[in-house]
Amino acid sequence: MTFILLFLGFIIGGFVIIMGGGGAALYLGILTSLVGASPATAAATSLYTSIPSLLIGSYSHYRTGNMKFKYGNRMLITAVPFTIIGSILSKFIPETVYSWLIFVVFFILGIQVLYQSFHPSKKQKQLNPKVAYFYGTLSGLMVGIAGMSGGGPIVSGLLVMGLTMQEAAATSSYILIITSIVGFLSHASTGHVAWYAGTMLLIGAIIGAAIMPYLLSRYDPNKVTKVLRPVMGVIMLIMAFTSL
Length: 244
What we know:
Blueprint (H helix, E strand, L loop, with lengths): L1 H18 L4 H12 L3 H26 L4 H21 L5 H24 L10 H18 L4 H10 L4 H24 L6 H22 L4 H22 L2
Helix pairs in contact: 1-9, 2-3, 3-8, 3-9, 4-6, 4-8, 5-7, 5-10, 6-7, 6-8, 7-8
């Protein structure tokens, strides 16, 4: 089991840092299905697991020069408070209702990203505060309610505003550090942490997150975006249907 957790952590840590997420939703699935953790324990543990790899990956992204702080700061304005609000609301939302809400969010985001992949805009990227606030809100609610990292809405919003995949991934990693810490503290106060399983996943994730940003920076941004943007859209659609 130890080797399996390390290996899964490595794969998830490397992949999600490329895609701009924290991987908490994937860790959530592993902890509930493979480890057998309760939803409350899995939520707290998934965020604990994702934070260190986010820190490593974020630093690696920062050194590539792709991190756009003015975009990230706008999203944080709503992401942080709605993470706290979501953690409070999580005690009162039925699981079935939440599953359908996640389905709708991921389905719409997936379709939007896929549409952009095949109908690219010719406009220059621009910071639209309303777009930033909206996607920041979605991300905060996902972190607060279910212990997900909320990377999907963040990356989608950044792509909608015209950032390349590298820029969106880099900026997202910086945002998710803050929301994941807030979410972890909120969930840890109501649920236990599966320390051993979480730490094994964490170690693997750190290694994967440290390596991938450097590999990503070696390739042409436009080509990487052209390949990974539709992949991101498909992943969100898969996550939509698996949430039901």
